[in-house]
Automatic annotation (TrEMBL):
This is Molybdate transport system transcriptional regulator, ModE. GO terms for molecular function: DNA-binding transcription factor activity; molybdenum ion binding. Pfam families: HTH_1, TOBE. The keyword Transport applies. Belongs to the ModE family. It comes from the Bacteria. One of its GO terms (biological process) is molybdate ion transport. Residues 124-190, 196-262 form the Mop domain. It comes from Rhodopseudomonas palustris (strain ATCC BAA-98 / CGA009). Keywords: Molybdenum, Repeat, Transport. The keyword Transport applies. Residues 125-133 are annotated as: Required for dimer formation and molybdate binding.
Amino acid sequence: MSIEATVTLKTKEISGVGRDRIRLLQAVAREGSITAGAKAAGLSYKAAWDALDAMTNLFGRPLLETRTGGKAGGGAQLTPTGVKVIEAFGRLEAEMARVFRNLEPELAGSGITPINLVSGFFMKTSARNALRGVITDIKADTLSAEVAVTVSPETTIYALLTAESVRSLGLVVGREAIVLIKAPFVMIAPGHQPPLVSARNCVRGIVRRADISAVNAEIVLDIGGDKTLAASVTARSADDLKLAPGDPACAVFDAAHVIVAID
């Protein structure tokens, strides 16, 4: 497997500078103007200026020197700082790629790839449920798409996305993906058989844990393949369900409440 590494540079106050913005900087330098560089990078003039301003704010020094006239209505060239930033960014990515290539033999047989490792270390989300799987089916029309992600031998989760999201994320059958579901979106029904509801996802499982407080409760289901799915319900609902560890139950949630993320 060919390993690539990407770097994002940011501060608490300033949004990240990653490969896309470095490529914009390179395009502006190559084309000789911000207008032409933005076009080459597939950005609007305003989006390019916003990105370049963000980079200047992050590094504290101008990365481009602009001048009137020139090709495409105004010229631009890299400052010495801009040259150093591009060079340093390339070295950072190359070093990260080298590190992960060296890690790959050590991970052999563990079922974990370097990409899984990075995602597990650095991915942050407010969703209680983040499950890695493989896309096994995509049904799409001109506006929307249903994406099926198999997260365990027993469980496939369906997400309803826009067709544009499928294209922009590069989602295809066979690609790994992560599904995110907030726990309050998950309903719990006791028993092996899912209830007759319009929700697309009815996932069978076994109660692993039921933590009940004065107001709320969290019910965690084992859904196979060492994966779990958590639901956040009211304490009264949990009392009514009377579920205990080992009991069969189904997690029910709508496909529109599932977010798909990629590495």
